[in-house]
Amino acid sequence: MGPLLSACGSDSDTGESADGTVTITMWHGQADEAKATIDKIVTAFQAKYPKIKVDASSGGVLADSMLQKITTALSSGHYPDIAYIFGPDIANVARSPKVANLQPYVTKPEVKWDDFYPAAREAVTVDGKVRGFPALVDNLCVAYNKKVFREAGVPEPTGDWTWDDFVALAKRLTDPAKGRFGTGWPAVGDEDCVWRIYPMIWDLGGSIVDDSGKKIGFDNDSGLKALQIIHQLGADKSVYADTKPGSETMYQIFNSGKMAMVATGPWELPAFVDAKTEYGVVPLPSFSGKRMTIAGPDTWTVFDNGSAKIKAAVQFLQFLTDAEQDVQWATQAGSLPLRKSTAESAEWKQHVSSTVGLDVFSDALQYAKTRPTVRAYPRISQPLGQAIVKMLLNKDTPETALQEVARAANAALVTG
Description:
With about 425 residues, the protein is an alpha/beta fold. Helix content is about 45%, strand content about 15%. Helix 11 (about 220-235) packs parallel to helix 19.
């Protein structure tokens, strides 16, 4: 990265001390193993680049509270150089002129921008400008409880299946007398509830926002069919609708052998292992026969505290996300590789082989899509979440629910 920094000129009046040292502040919002991993990477970076000091801390909050923290910081004028921002939030954060434009940096060959998975790159790009580096990427597949399938005498799913197969299996494996559900779905109406429907919409040819950017792209058969699938689960009473934030009850039921299948991400695998659950993982079902899933990338958003600090932040984030460090983050903090080269590394392949189902999530990165980085997204997600909850609880029709979503979401897109 030396040539990258020197090529951009001197920064004596923009955050660089008299001896050439630059100090950057990072709010990572992490705890436990993730925090320990970042601390080790920061130590290694500063040993290699002593002229850049990284003041890394949680920022006083966990990642899920970072949006409020950074919004307050931007208003006060005292904000960090790097902050961990959830993917769905970056478009609104990037409305601030204090968010840096990294486009001139990521085109440098040493950054190896194209090595990041497409979904990870898209998550940090707002209005065609890169606003940070990928921080974390995950996706959804289906975990199934082998014991439940075995006791019910039902063959395990192979991954070559349809959403109609999923609905039929969920119904067949539901047994009220035994307190057993075919599947589960978060039913708070939050993003954990919403993002699970998008692979169905995409697979059916729809989109979250259409090409005009002025209306949703699922106000058609793609949205209707997707809602019909969820509505059928609710009507069959084959789905446990978890109305508690965090979906902990849903996973407890799965681990106790009272749920057959659940769409989830790689973050849940350690809990399955700790619970000694006999589980397997397969890709999401499909309508078309092609593989489809959603990635939920988060970001290291960079803020403008002067050009020297921006350059130093880029240099640190390049180091943090380089394959050697990326594999540490992925294996020790329980994530997936950000880069294709990381997924091909011997260390990652060895790690994958030690955890049941992790290979399915890792392979899914190749075809995962992500939500669009549009400012109105939260006002699309909210009415859609409400519609999904109604379907799970069998309290509305898919047709009426979709009409209500379209009315609210389209109004949000028009006003921006």
